[in-house]
Design goal:
Elements (H helix, E strand, L loop, with lengths): L2 E7 L3 H13 L4 E5 L5 H6 L2 E5 L3 H5 L6 E4 L5 H6 L6 E3 L4 H19 L2 H9 L16 E4 L3 H12 L4 E5 L10 E3 H11 L2 E4 L13 H6 L5 E4 L8 H9 L5 E4 L19 E3 L9 H18 L13
Parallel strand pairs: 1-2, 1-3, 3-4, 4-5, 6-7, 6-9, 7-8, 9-10, 10-11, 11-12
The structure holds NADP nicotinamide-adenine-dinucleotide phosphate.
Length: 314
């Protein structure tokens, strides 16, 4: 008999179909189908679901739900929208996603390191002016958030000659780079880094973490790359810190509101590079295979993968 698994997601029909096709191709005797296509009986008995930015109302309609497999790495919205739920949330931890993110971190670190924003502006002014070229060894990079993404990014940066420091929540005994913790550690890493890369999850603890005061702790002329979630950096504070010339440049992939509203002053700021949330999109092929493996193991052996800690929010 074929087990039916609901797919709940507020994504485009094309994205949904691509994911469904890829997941179903890797499953045996299990079929993932859109939530809207479930029969009443299938709704009543579904034990798990595949989700991608799901409508929480759909999940409430699945009384036997034990866990959900997210196709996304960031699940803060799902955690927030299902506050008292016992349903376990398994997020996407795809090694390919970490590689893609590390490529973005390296690319934009090199963009800052080789003074590309300055030369772009000089070209606009037809100005021929050379600036002193620093070595990668002279540009310490601080990574806030040393999880799946931060660790791979750290390795890639070090392979390219950049000294890397990390900041995370719980002490990490096997660290092969200098690690810092807590508020004093955050202050220290901000003070020591030429480039700060944000790869933290959005939780009640990290929301608004980089405020006026903390951005002011960063080195004069330093750069900020936010590739995690917009609200971790206070957008108004960032603008003020750039306006007063304290920060050199910000590369932003994520924002409080996405798409970034056309009237937002960040668009026109000469020291800001805007990316449309593109640094590490879910790779349908590899993510679907991982999701299918987890689903198959659950129905074959009853195993649920490690879930998000709802108390911590990630
Ligand atoms: P992860 O494996 O859960 O790692 C999170 C890291 O942040 C861990 O090192 C954790 O510390 C640290 N952390 C969490 N709360 C903290 C706090 N209060 N203080 C200090 N450190 C804290 O997450 P991930 O897979 O690397 O992903 C990180 C985030 O990237 C996701 O949540 C998502 O929002 C974002 N993302 C963005 C894109 C994009 O395209 N822009 C793509 C994918 C993901 P511990 O190690 O001590 O637990």
């Amino acid at each position: 008999m074929t087990v039916v698994v609901p797919f709940c997601g507020r994504i485009t029909p094309r994205e949904r179909q691509e994911s469904l096709d890829a997941i179903n191709a890797a499953l045996n005797n299990i079929r993932v189908i859109p939530f809207a296509d479930l029969t009443d009986g299938e709704r009543r008995t579904a034990r798990m679901a595949v989700v991608a930015n799901p409508d929480p109302v759909d999940l409430l309609d699945l009384p036997m739900l034990e866990w959900v497999q997210s196709l996304w790495a960031g699940v803060e919205r799902l955690v927030e929208e299902t506050p008292n739920s016992a349903v376990r949330i398994v997020r996407m931890t795809d090694p390919q996603l970490a590689q893609t993110m590390s490529e973005a971190v390296l690319a934009w670190t090199l963009y800052i390191h080789r003074d590309m924003p300055t030369y772009r502006q000089q070209q606009g002014d037809r100005r021929w002016q050379q600036h002193k070229l620093a070595l990668p060894e002279e540009r310490p990079v601080g990574i806030l958030g040393m999880g799946n993404l931060g660790r791979v990014a750290s390795k890639r940066l070090r392979e390219n000659g950049f000294p890397v420091m990390g900041w995370s929540r719980a002490p990490w005994t096997k660290a092969d780079i200098p690690m810092m913790y807590g508020p004093s550690g955050l202050e220290a890493i901000l003070r020591k880094s030429s480039i700060v890369v944000v790869l933290l999850p959005l939780t009640p603890q990290t929301r608004g973490l980089l405020d006026d005061w903390r951005l002011g702790q960063m080195r004069e002329g330093a750069a900020l790359l936010n590739f995690a979630r917009g609200p971790i950096v206070d957008q108004g504070a960032l603008l003020r810190t750039l306006e007063r010339g304290h920060l050199g440049h910000a590369v932003l992939d994520v924002f409080d509101r996405e798409p970034l509203p056309k009237e937002d002053p960040l668009w026109a700021h000469p020291n800001v590079t805007i990316l449309p949330h593109i640094t590490a999109p879910t790779q349908t092929g590899t993510a679907s295979l991982l999701a299918a493996k987890n689903i198959q193991e659950f129905f074959d052996r009853g195993h649920i993968p490690e879930a998000v800690n709802r108390d911590l929010g990630y």
